[in-house]
Structures are given as structure tokens and as C-alpha cells.
Amino acid sequence: MPTNAMTALRDPARRSKVVAAARTAGTAALALGVLGSIITAAGTAEGDVRPAALKETLAAAAPVAAPAKAQLPRVLVPAQAPVPAPMPAPAPPVAPPPAPVYADNLDGWIRQALDIMSQRGIPGSYDGILRNVLRESSGNPQAINLYDSNAAMGIPSKGLLQVIDPTFNAYHVDGTSTNIWDPVANIVAACNYAAHRYGSMDNVNSAY
Fold first, then answer.
1. What average pLDDT does range 152-177 have in this prediction?
2. Measured on CA atoms in the order 45, 46, 47, 52, is the torsion positive or negative?
3. pLDDT tens across 92-108, in order?
4. Residue 136's closest CA among 154, 173, 163, 106?
5. DSSP category for residue 46
6. Three-state secondary structure of 108-177
7. What is the mean pLDDT of the segment spanning 138-142?
8. HSE of 205 in the Cβ direction (CA atoms, 13 Å)?
9. Cα(116)–Cα(10) distance, rounded to whole angstroms?
10. 116 backbone dihedrals φ, ψ, rounded to 5°
11. Which of 45, 68, 185, 208 is the most exposed place for a label (fewest CB within 10 A)?
12. Beta bridge partners of 157
């Protein structure tokens, strides 16, 4: 005669409750232990429990596998390029040296003439120019000779180094005044002429 336990296994509604209890227990081993206890209590006699009912009960009591976690797509993060080092600040432009200031006298005129001659490759020294200026005009930029042969031909010698107009025009140096009476222009043109005729104003020691 079937026991109450066997009746529970054969009754689908009651068997579901047993399975639910087994699942609630949390593990398959515990579920099987519960079923085993029921079968033992029933005497485990052959034919007491129908094989199909027992198989169905064990299968229902098996733990339900947890659903696999969804595999998220891998996101590749691009490597960041190295930050370049800041460029050094450009060096401030070098200011050109201030233009020299020359005194408006014989010393200043000679020094300015020497700077221009140096740029143009015209030889001559301070002492050589000063010596010839003092002999020719005594340092007077407005000096003029109205008595020599040049004056007789209508081309008197003029200025600090007593240059005639044709000579001044032929040996005038660009960048200087075109006025023969200008002291700096007069010195530079005379020194340019002396460089071509005598090698340098330093080699002139008399009328030239």
C-alpha cells in the first residue's frame, strides 16, 4: 500500500512542491538528499515509485544553470600620442648698434669720412688726412684758391682738401653729399682720388 511520501511523488501538484523545496535549498546534493529521504521513508520497494515519475522528479530537481552573462564588446582605446615639448621662445631680435654721432667740427668730419672710406675700401688714416687738410685749407671748409693755375682756368680748388670740381665729380663717393663744399664729401672724394693717384692720402705731402 503506498505511503503518504509515495503518494506525494506520484501526485504532480505535490511533486512540484517537493521540487520547489529542493530548489530553494540551493544545491543539487541537498535536493537529491531530500528525495532520497522520501524514497527511504517509503521503503524503496520495487515498483513503489514509477521509474518515469522518479526520473521526472530528479530532472526537475536539478539546479537551473544561471544564464551566461552577455559578453560586452571590447572597446579599444587608442593610445594617446606623446605631448610634444613646448618650443623654446625665440630669442629677441638684436637691436642694431646706434648710429655714431659725429661732432660738427674738423675732428668729427675726419672721423665720419674715415668710416665711409672703410666701408668703400678707400685707404687713409686720421693723421694723413689731418696733415693734408691743415696744409691745404687750415681746416676751413669754405676755403677757395683764386690765384693758382686752376683758378686761372676757371676751376678753382675748393674746400678742406682743395679739390677742383672735375676731380670731385669724377671721384665722388655714393652716399655722400654732391656738394663740393660739404666737408665730409670733400674729404672722401679727395682721398678716393689720392688712392687712385698715389695709393693713399697718407702718401701725399705737398700739392697734389
1. 97
2. positive
3. 888 888 888 999 999 99
4. 163
5. T
6. HHHHHHHHHHHHHCCCCCHHHHHHHHHHHCCCCCCCEECCCHHHHCCCCEECCCCECHHHHHHHCCCCCC
7. 97
8. 1
9. 130
10. -65, -40
11. 68
12. 145
